[in-house]
Amino acid sequence: MPVPLPLPCFAAIEFSLTSWDYVAFFGYFFGLCLIGYFAGRKKNKTAADYFLAGRSLPWYVVGSSYVAANISTEHFIGLIGAAVIYGICVATGEWSTVIAFSFLIWLFIPYLLTSKVYTAPEFLEKRFNKSMRFIFASVTLLVNVVAFMGPVIYGGALVLVELFGFDRVTAVIVIGIASGIWAIWGGLKSIALMDVLTIVVMISGGLSVTYLGLVHLGDGDGMIAGVGKMLEVNRGDVPWAADWISENVPNILQGAEAGDGYDRLLVLQPINHYSNPWTHWVFSFFYIGLWYTVINQHMIQKVLAAKDMYHARMGMVFASFLKLLLPFIVVVPGLIFFAMKPDFLMEGSFSEQSDAVNATYILMIKQLVPTFLTGVLLAALFGAIQSTVCSVLNSTSTIFTMDFYKMFFRKNATEKEEVVVGQVAGAVILAISILVGILLATVTKVNLFIWIQALYVFFAPPFSATFLLGALWRRVSGTDALVASIVTFVFAILLKVLEFKEQLLGWADVPDWLALPSWMIPFANQGMICWALCMVVCAVSAMITAPPPRENVSDDLTFNWKELRLGGGLGDHWYSSVTLWWAISLLSMIGFVVLFSIVL
């Protein structure tokens, strides 16, 4: 999830930029503005032009824009830092998305494209009923502003504060306007084409940090020698690394003791791993990945805007390869920095070290990257923020226009009116998000981010469960989905009340039977439990209630087990085959797991 992290440790870093760095940074920003202006200058836009880029995006734009919307400061700051502490296993969140994308490519894209909807809530009405559409649209509006745009703008503002000396309120306003203006002006086409430039800068700039880090480790003997040094240190084959791993393993594996072993190069970690147990790899798609990749409007809107079925599917295959590449940009640098023996690992408690690693990306840029390229990399960091804000802003205004304004106020609104409403809604939503960012910057700090993470337990599992079951089983009706969602929402609230009983209710001592066991405390386990409960309730309800109307379970809305229809759009030649390139991406994912779990 693209939630930015607070960056208190940046204040200790002295960071100076040359004129060439400013040229690179503002040159990138100028290029973005040119693309945003020319892509969005078409007059007399229809609603499809504004909200779905005229359903004209080719596969490479679909894939680039999809991944650009997913990457934020969480990747460049949080993930690199996590790799310093936990090792390669934090890459599982990126590599495992190939599994989620496979479901999207083979199961869900045919329904979503043939239904010709603008929004995911609109699809839920076709499959279930208006109540599910309204609930999902309402939750999406709230979450997009509170849990996505506000925090992402705040995270970007912190970078401006620490690196350029802005005050926090000014930084939030500058980031908000600079990031969102082209989404309001040009709609999805401006966003998607700007994302292509952003992805090019992110990948080229990010890989350069990895290359320079390995060359640095090679100490004059080249990059290959640097790879050897990185592996040697991360395996604990040097005394200081072995001592650090031995001392800190109790903070990484629940129940472990100092001196126990820990493999930093193992992808699939044991179930007692604090951040990345193997269960997260296997089950995360079901309780959160399905919602995030398939029915999350700010992601799936790029797929709905594809030229046709082929470009939608091949776009997600391209996105799979980008996600396979991403750990070499935002995880391997963490392994490199660990091998560089940073000072903060040699002092302070584990929690202090965990906070200090958030500065890893900035420290690597400062120590390894030459002038001009530094400006490019800071531009990539800004691009990660800008692309997320633009995508969420456009999707939120789309949902407001199609699922509220048109549904409740002006069913016969003209295309031009819908575009104007979308632009006005976008401006208002951006203003509210900036206010949320200012609130985060001036009133609250870290604790709110913990609550934002906890929000995912409430809305992701019920929608993931009902959407999956509704696609695969025609017996599920709108009533079943609604009952299951409400029961799961209530259960999720109960879990949080029991988890925070002392803070919320003042219950310091409660009977043992009322206390949550330790394995139910982590967010991932709560999400899995909520998802399983929703599946059971939905299935039981489906068995005892009336079946849905026939128009809700057509072949365009549900999977036909008898015909196994894949929907076409698989490519005309072997070199353009969706099946071939998808298989290569899947085998590559398996290959990376084997490489890091067995070979290295």
From TrEMBL:
Localization recorded for this chain is:
Membrane
Database matches in Pfam families:
SSF
- What Gene Ontology terms describe what this protein does at the molecular function level? D-glucose:sodium symporter activity
Q: How does it sit in the membrane?
A: Multi-pass membrane protein
| Residues in coiled coil | none
Q: Record's GO cellular component, any one?
A: plasma membrane
Sorted alphabetically, the keyword list is: Membrane, Transmembrane, Transmembrane helix
Q: Which residues cross the membrane?
A: 20-39, 59-88, 94-113, 134-154, 166-185, 192-214, 278-295, 316-339, 359-382, 420-441, 448-469, 528-546, 580-599
Determine if Membrane is one of this entry's keywords.
yes
Which InterPro entries would you find in this protein's record? Na/Glc_symporter_sf, Na/solute_symporter
Q: Which family does it belong to?
A: Belongs to the sodium:solute symporter (SSF) (TC 2.A.21) family.
Name this protein carries in UniProt? Sodium/glucose cotransporter
> Per UniProt, what is the name of the gene that codes for the protein in this document?
sglT_7
